[in-house]
Design a protein that fits this description.
With 501 residues, this protein is an alpha/beta fold. Among the domains are: 64 residues, no CATH class; 192 residues, 3-Layer(aba) Sandwich (Rossmann fold). The protein is built from 24 helices and 10 strands. A 7-stranded mixed β-sheet has the order 6-2-1-7-8-10-9. A 3-stranded antiparallel β-sheet has the order 3-5-4. Strand 4 and strand 5 form a beta hairpin. Helix 18 packs parallel to helix 20 and helix 21 packs antiparallel against helix 22. The N and C termini lie far apart (49 Å). It binds S-adenosylmethionine (SAM). S-adenosylmethionine binds next to loops.
């Protein structure tokens, strides 16, 4: 089997595509598995690929290297509030006598998500909630599931968890990680499930609530549609489905009805009953907003605030939630502007807090998500910054700032091929973007590609020569270097590469 055939196999079996820079990830994973299985000899590579089609265990082992298991406790807490304040009380009230409410997390990775749900329910209803709610977590990745069952977590898993909750439900291990309380660990079931495999196990039928968060971003539109159809079938007639905040609208294929509660969007199997009183406008069904490069550029400056204020908010919350429109909360434009100002002042935590409600809506403006990614990057949270930037690319695969940021992050993580791929796309999108050229020059230099590095430094310097005002292209983060220093740095780099500009 060829690499292309392996890619087709992985796409059809797992729904994951390994085109572009992802191919690099696939090649590396195959090399690691080949080494682990001690495949040697001239035909080792082809033999290994052929084995994949026949050996389910080997396919599982490779899958573990290919999946992105990024997750943490109390991620997107607005969904937990939606659960405990609204959905769970309703489902609990309406369930048939003696039957627990069934909650399923698909793509649960290492378990933080279903365990967070259990903790939130325990906090609300105590141990009675274990009898009232049955929680299962499902994932494709066997190794992630084994870690979920083990229930030991590194400090990064607690980045969004209230320390009081950590103290209540975890015990510190001498090794530096934290062990989840057995009573929580034993109250969640885990199973392996490939969302693309058919049919789903019978025992999964009849869910009251499905969490399907931060996974669809890795699927293309036909795969997302297929998965939504199948998950809808698993739901009880009065069931609900929750996607990640930035993914909801991109999964609105009409199988389920989009609903909103306090600014949080989710899907219901039942169409909403007509509300008494004046009619409200239902949310429009449209794909996520595409950002043209000029708009993305404008987002880095404050003009976008005026654009939003002038044209009225595109956020569904302000259209459909009268309580929000009446309350004296800042408008999205004001919030975004304030987040920008805080970012420029390096007050990153405060900026993220201000930005949070803007990113917690299915019609999230990619500019808001981009700013969030940039702040996370500035805070050094590279994995989550990259994941957020990739969410921007779901809405607009050519979003300039997200591409440049992913280039930077990939370089920082030592993945020069991926960095180059993102930066070349950015330059294709906007050929006169000096930060993309400067960053690409750094990648080329690091890769020992002197000629290409010289060319890129030269272009970056020519673009910078337009004057200090072009520094604004670098985005909202405070510049590490002044315009003068930056030019001197690039000139010095060029000189070292044997070329005086
Ligand atoms: C980024 S994690 C999301 C974790 C969690 N849902 C959250 O929001 O924090 C995505 C998970 O989806 C899983 N996954 C990828 N493809 C899958 C598939 N075809 N079927 C089931 N799970 C899949 C991966 O193994 C990974 O653990």
């Amino acid at each position: 089997m060829s690499l292309e055939a392996a890619k087709t196999l992985l796409k059809s079996r797992l729904g994951l595509s390994f085109e572009g820079h992802w191919e690099h990830l696939l090649r590396r994973a195959i090399e690691r598995r080949q080494a682990a299985t001690r495949a040697t000899g001239a035909s080792a590579h082809l033999d290994y690929l052929a084995r994949l089609a026949l050996d389910a265990e080997e396919l599982d082992a490779l899958t573990s290297l290919l999946t992105i298991n990024e997750t943490y406790f109390y991620r997107e807490p607005e969904h937990l509030r939606l659960l405990t304040d609204h959905l769970a009380p309703e489902l609990r009230r309406n369930r048939p006598p003696g039957r627990p409410v069934r909650i399923l997390c698909v793509g649960c990775a290492t378990g933080e998500e279903p365990y967070s749900i259990r903790m939130a329910l325990r906090e609300r209803w105590g141990e009675q909630s274990d009898r009232d709610f049955a929680i299962s977590g499902a994932d494709l990745d066997r190794e992630a599931l084994a870690a979920a069952r083990r229930g030991h977590y590194r400090p990064l898993a607690f980045r969004a968890l209230d320390p009081a909750l950590r103290a209540r439900w975890f015990t510190a291990n001498p090794e530096g990680d934290w062990r989840l309380a057995d009573s929580i660990r034993g109250s969640v079931e885990f199973l392996q499930l490939n969302l693309l495999a058919t049919p789903y196990p019978d025992e999964l039928q009849g869910q009251d609530l499905i969490f399907y968060r931060n996974l669809s971003i890795y699927f293309d539109a036909p795969t997302r549609q297929l998965v939504m159809a199948r998950l809808s079938d698993l739901l009880q007639p009065a069931g609900y489905l929750i996607l990640g905040v930035a993914e909801t609208l991109a999964n609105d294929f009409g199988f389920l009805t989009l609903r909103e509660q306090g600014g949080v969007w989710f899907f219901a199997k039942q169409p909403a009953a007509p509300a008494p009183g004046p009619k409200t406008t239902p949310p429009r069904r449209k794909p996520p907003i595409r950002v043209r490069p000029a708009v993305a550029e404008a987002a880095a400056r404050s003009r976008i605030g005026d654009r939003e204020a002038g044209s009225g908010s595109r956020l569904p919350t302000s259209r459909t939630s009268p309580s929000l429109t009446r309350s004296p909360v800042p408008s999205p434009a004001q919030r975004y502007q304030e987040a920008l100002t805080l970012t420029q002042a390096e007050r990153y935590t405060a900026a993220l807090e201000i930005l949070a409600p803007l990113c917690a809506t299915p019609e999230v403006d990619p500019a808001h998500l981009t700013l969030r990614a940039q702040i996370l990057y500035a805070q050094g949270d590279l994995d989550v910054a990259a994941e957020t930037a990739r969410q921007v690319l779901v809405a607009d695969p050519w979003a300039l700032e997200a591409l440049v940021l992913l280039g930077r992050i990939s370089r920082a993580q030592g993945d020069l091929d991926a960095a180059v791929e993102h930066l070349r796309r950015a330059i294709y999108q906007q050929p006169d973007h000096w930060p993309a050229h400067g960053e690409l020059a750094e990648c080329r230099r690091a890769a020992g590609q002197d000629e290409a590095a010289r060319r890129e430094y030269g272009i970056a310097l020519r673009l910078l020569a337009a004057g200090p005002e072009v520094l604004a292209q670098a985005g909202p983060l405070p510049p590490a270097l002044t315009w003068m220093d930056l030019r001197q740095l690039y000139q010095a780099r060029l000189a070292r590469l044997g070329h005086l500009n």
